[in-house]
Amino acid sequence: MQLILLLSFVSTNLPYMNENRFDNKLSRPGLAFQPLYKQVEEQVTQLIVEQRWKPGEMLPNEFQLASEFGVSQGTVRKALNSLTSSKVLTRRQGIGTFVSEHTGHHGLYRFYPLIGDGKNPELPKAELLSITTETASKKVAEALALKAKDKVIVLIRRRILEDEFCIAETIYLPYKWFKALLDEKDVPHTLYHFYQTNFNLTVHTIRDSIKAELATQNDVDMLNIGLGEPLLEVTRIAQSLNDKPMEYRISRCRSDKYHYLVELN
Amino acid sequence: MQLILLLSFVSTNLPYMNENRFDNKLSRPGLAFQPLYKQVEEQVTQLIVEQRWKPGEMLPNEFQLASEFGVSQGTVRKALNSLTSSKVLTRRQGIGTFVSEHTGHHGLYRFYPLIGDGKNPELPKAELLSITTETASKKVAEALALKAKDKVIVLIRRRILEDEFCIAETIYLPYKWFKALLDEKDVPHTLYHFYQTNFNLTVHTIRDSIKAELATQNDVDMLNIGLGEPLLEVTRIAQSLNDKPMEYRISRCRSDKYHYLVELN
DNA sequence: AAGTGGTCTAGACCACGGA
DNA sequence: CCGTGGTCTAGACCACTTC
Fold first, then answer.
1. Which residues form a coiled coil (chains A, B) (predicted)?
2. Fewer CB within 10 Å: C terminus or N terminus of chain B?
3. How far apart are the C-alpha atoms of A136 and A223, rounded to whole Å?
4. Strand C contact with B185 (CB < 7 A)
């Protein structure tokens, strides 16, 4: 009898996977069920996408979020730590939890793997040569998950390290998200931070395919190198926080003094 | 035996950061203090290095490990999950926790980023051309953290994908750890699994530097390609579980039909 | 001193896989 | 059926930062 009473008390209080739980905004029954902490992760990500918290802003503390989502503080913590390990959030003891900014040497560098031989990583400057609008080619449309005749904005840049051209880049952006870019007067060197602050599009993951190529006449003109010299061609698809492709870029990189660096574990 | 010794060092049931804790083998006072779960991570890693559990073997369950290390089950769980995310362990619900094996498509692939264009990842076969012993050059000694005149074992291989040579590799291994390799009759295609099972050396992290190069006469002979064609040269340093460099390799890869793939997040 | 995230513990129940 | 890891909660204390 005591056992029964105890059980009924527990189930009203806050049981794990109680039926009441399914009335909660967070929980779903059946096959599509996700653990609560994953649901919290998704909710928080969605709220960032919706700009409830902007990059650099501080989130409420764990207990406030816990009561908002109707879960315990420990579950919120697990979700926040998971988002921290995927670089969406930054946590600082004694301070708070912040939406990561793609700025400085922490967040940005990891997507700039081209290093001068024997040197420390350094962010190159960029010289913007043109901004145009085109109809996406088949390859570009596929990479950006666009329809056949969708428009894209095309940027052509040269990147400069130590007063020397090192990379020639062609960048394709979906017109539907980036059309305001055409009116922009000053497109900065650090595009990913610019995307984040001006278009609310944060680069979350990238996929680089690397090939070796010979310098064409165009490369010679762009990079001031000899015809037929070997170059690294890096083809990149960048995905946003909600896993939609947001940038397609082809970078042709001098390889005589620079190398592409990867660390895996 | 180790278990008994370890248990004898463990002080009684302990509160968090109690003074008694500092008598525990796991805890250290002062500046070098590490959280308990990190200490458990290090201990478990060390025990794997010492072969208390071999690759593929199952560890004791969380409660047994907890009592052995004198911490709570939750702390052990945090340590085991962390080691799982760094690919040292593999956990399967309902089964147990295992030391990761560098085999099959799960553990091995992540270190083979060369993909046929438009194809799915596939492990290449290898043709071993020579095994020799040399004195390490300055560059090799530096990469492998060896003394000036230490010896290294040098393997030269060609790798084959779909009946075609795609990579020419030169591999340098510290003689002190790999000397038994000289007596080996059958060196298999999958070296990292071989290192793990025969030499108790598990590749944990790699660092690849990628450059574009022109095919030399040697490349022409090795890969059956045209002189002056562009190649990817991948220079790799592989580190073991205890972060010591264990392999230095230079791979010259055909780039006409293959590309090197990186995903970052 | 107050507030934050970080660590640690304890205990409950669930889901999976094998006997 | 049992044992495993997975999820969730609750509550304690520690360490860092700012005021």
1. none
2. N
3. 26
4. no
